[in-house]
Design a protein that fits this description.
Length: 299
């Protein structure tokens, strides 16, 4: 089944969830423009998630999803909110949605895990999920080890459910390429970082706009949790510490709260400015509707 029918959306485009970033303003803008907006639940309790869902619903009557980062401690209460409010879909990361699968499907919530390799894609298909997002390592945020170009066709060959390609996609050409690789749709994150509606600091948007193709790095290899971010003093320091074999707790302490420093405070030295390699192509702040229309307009 194609994902426009599966998710009742106009275009085969999902806005990748972005921790502490994809709040109601961005989500409703994407859903109103014909894609699927995805609300982050990182750092939220049940009350805050419920409030964000209500805000999205006050801004759009179109479908949207919630993202669950499954290592978070309070997932059961967040799943209760999602099921009670009949959200259209969840995307999941950092673990298996298996413990919550029946409850979500009973509430007619589509389950779409983000996967980094073929083996996990097959396990998710066996679980009965509705689609998978195959995310390449050029993506921003937490990443696997295979590139989009290699991963997507291998996942497409391995499973019989829709595969949504993510990682390095930001314009008409890369969407077309993903579809040729066999994907049923795309998920984009970095391209929306510079959207007008995205509620992040001006400094974060400026760092994305001024990034070149080689301005992202991967930290966290020593923590077995690789993360792609824009180069800045924080990641330079962490890379040095990782090269010197520094204590992992010391590294974790530096990372603690660093995303909030980027998103809310625009702290260019101590913030963690997660973004993908495609940041080098993002050169202007545009309304979400323009970003999406430019991709799907005919001709
Ligand atoms: C700043 C940032 C934060 C992200 N946070 C999450 C997250 O909380 N959960 C998740 O499943 N994916 C997260 N991602 C991944 C995106 O949802 C998406 O899959 C990815 O951005 C696609 O690759 P691209 O950055 O090349 O477009 C994040 C990506 C970025 C850039």
């Amino acid at each position: 089944m194609n994902i426009t029918n599966l998710l009742s959306i106009k275009y085969p485009l999902i806005q990748g969830s972005m921790a502490r970033i994809s709040r109601h303003e961005l989500v409703s803008a994407v859903s109103n423009a014909g894609g699927l907006g995805v609300l982050t639940s990182v750092g939220m309790d049940a009350g805050e998630l419920s409030r964000q869902i209500d805000l999205v619903r006050s801004e759009t009557d179109k479908p949207f999803a919630v993202n669950l980062m499954l290592q978070q401690q309070n997932i059961p209460e967040l799943v209760d909110v999602i099921a009670d409010k009949y959200v259209a879909a969840v995307t999941t990361g950092a673990g298996t949605p298996k413990p919550y699968f029946e409850q979500l499907h009973a509430a007619q919530v589509k389950v779409i895990p983000v996967i980094p390799n073929v083996s996990i894609a097959k396990k998710m298909e066996q679980l009965g999920v509705d689609a998978v997002v195959a995310e390449g390592m050029e993506s921003g945020g937490h990443i696997g080890q295979t590139t989009t170009m290699s991963l997507v066709p291998q996942v497409v060959d391995a499973v019989n459910i829709p595969v949504i390609a993510a990682g390095g996609i930001a314009d008409k050409r890369s969407v077309a390429a993903a579809l040729v690789l066999g994907a049923s749709g795309v998920q984009m994150g970095t391209a929306f970082l510079a959207a007008k509606e995205t509620p992040i600091s001006a400094e974060y948007k400026n760092m994305v706009l001024s990034a070149s193709d080689t301005d992202t790095v991967i930290t966290g290899m020593s923590l077995k949790d690789p993360v792609r971010s824009l180069k800045n003093p924080l990641v330079t320091k962490i890379l040095e510490m990782e090269a010197n074999g520094s204590d992992r707790d010391e590294i974790r302490t530096l990372l603690d709260g660093s995303l909030q420093k980027a998103v809310y405070d625009g702290d260019v030295d101590r913030g963690s400015f997660m973004a993908g390699q495609i940041a080098g192509q993002i050169k202007a702040i545009k309304p979400v509707a323009n970003i999406i229309e430019e991709i799907f307009q005919k001709g």
